[in-house]
Write a structure and sequence with these properties.
alpha/beta, Enolase-like, domain 1, TIM Barrel, 2 domains, 5-stranded parallel beta sheet, 4-stranded antiparallel beta sheet, 39% helix, globular, binds magnesium ion
């Protein structure tokens, strides 16, 4: 896996290649002296089909796409089931936004795919954006429903070809994925949070953990006065030097405050600082990235290829974090991953809950440019047994399912008595 350093980017052979690709002149000037030509990133993103579907010689006409709600031993879960006219099936599990977004799914997204050839999935994911002016909903309100549809179709295609989705995406490179748990707390005392982080590390067996700083979209206000400034050194002191520590401000700070907090993290040897500024303040986030040595992570809220391209081209971010649901699925995220590869930037996906961990491990299993850790949310003990072989979480690493599609072999049984959500 990529061991990321900023110096590697500046000195590496890739930088020389970029210079050559741009006809000898890396774009420079007032914006950033390290900018990469966007043509170079586009060429990588567009570097041939994402999917390998050799062996599917005949059309795979989509007959139906159905949203279901099932009661399982692990609680209430939604499923998407896709069926072809030849009787093939595939399944996906949406994230929690489905309870708000099911009308978009049922009225604007799923119907577009019905009657189409599933082998054209890459084009369909692009065209549904324009269909019925869906682009006006641009953000996770549109792209989550597209992702749920895409996952189910990928699962069906994988089952038909008897290959895991990672193989359809170019070939599995990693059989285990190192992860870190993320604390969801804000507003508790630093002492209480450090105890919780200790528990998270013990409960998961991981040696890396993330916690929240700032007040969330709060214009520099903390969730408790002085909490972040106390928590950053306290977590290092109590958890020891061997634990890798990450923080996430969820868009809390302006540039000056972001830099100030980042410096405190640098003093205490933190691994990365996520979303220091409001998520769509691209230039401000870039300024924080440029000022600090600690890597800046960003991207969970982003739904625009063009914004990712700007941030990668202008070195506005050090670690790129698309969310497979929020960004509209594997195919779109793979194009971002290709741009990251072109810029020697590592990926560390954001997870939005549900069975996100199972989709994350399939996606990153075939990605060459990974950060040292991916995010882990959910509870493998509740749903890991739905996969064949069951997903194993050992020594801070998740195993990648090897069964066809997403490997969720229990899906047909789980939805047997499910209620259709029309
Ligand atoms: Mg975050």
């Amino acid at each position: 896996m990529t061991q990321f350093t900023r110096r590697a980017f500046m000195q590496g052979s890739l930088a020389a290649g970029v210079t050559a690709a741009a006809g000898g002149s890396v774009v420079s000037g007032a914006e950033s002296s390290t900018a990469i030509p966007t043509e170079h990133l586009d060429a990588w993103a567009d570097g041939g089909p994402v999917l390998r579907l050799e062996g599917l010689d005949d059309p795979v006409e989509i007959e139906s796409i159905t949203l279901l709600r099932a009661e399982t031993d692990a609680g209430t879960y939604y499923f998407v089931r896709v069926r072809s006219t030849d009787g093939a099936e595939g399944y996906s599990v949406p994230n929690f936004w489905v309870s708000d977004l099911h009308p978009v799914f049922n009225q604007r997204v799923a119907p577009y795919f019905v009657g189409k050839d599933a082998r054209d999935l890459e084009e369909l994911v692009d065209e549904v954006y324009r269909h019925r002016s869906n682009y006006k909903l641009q953000s996770l309100g549109l792209w989550c429903p597209v992702a749920w549809t895409e996952f189910a179709i990928l699962d069906m295609l994988g089952r038909m070809l008897e290959k895991p989705v990672g193989e359809l995406m170019g070939g599995v490179l990693h059989s285990e994925i190192p992860v870190y748990p993320a604390s969801g707390n804000r507003g508790n005392t630093p002492e209480a949070e450090v105890e919780h982080l200790q528990w998270l590390l013990e409960d998961t067996g991981c040696n890396a953990v993330k916690f929240r700083v700032g007040g969330r979209m709060s214009n520099n206000e903390d969730s408790l006065p002085g909490r972040s400034e106390t928590l950053i050194p306290l977590a290092r002191q109590r958890l020891g030097d061997d634990v890798v520590l990450f923080t996430d401000s969820n868009s809390s700070y302006d540039v000056a405050h972001g830099i100030r907090l980042g410096r405190l993290m640098e003093e205490h040897g933190y691994g990365f600082f996520e979303e220091p500024c409001p998520f769509d303040w691209l230039e401000e986030t870039r300024q924080v990235t440029e000022a600090l040595d600690i890597p800046i992570a960003w991207g969970e809220q982003e739904s625009s290829y063009w914004a990712f391209r700007w941030m990668i081209a202008h070195r506005g971010v050090d670690i790129v974090q698309p969310d497979l649901h929020y960004y509209g699925g594997f195919i779109r995220s793979a194009r971002v991953a290709r741009m990251c590869q072109a810029a020697d930037l590592p990926l560390s996906l954001h997870l939005s809950g549900g069975l996100g961990y199972s989709q994350m491990i399939q996606f990153v299993s075939c990605m060459p440019n990974l950060y040292d850790y991916q995010e882990y949310k959910g509870d493998i003990r509740e749903t890991g047994g739905w996969f064949d072989p069951p997903i194993v979480f050992r020594d801070g690493k998740l195993s990648v399912p090897t069964a066809p599609g997403f490997g969720m072999t229990a899906a047909p049984d789980l939805i047997q008595d499910a209620e259709e959500i029309a």
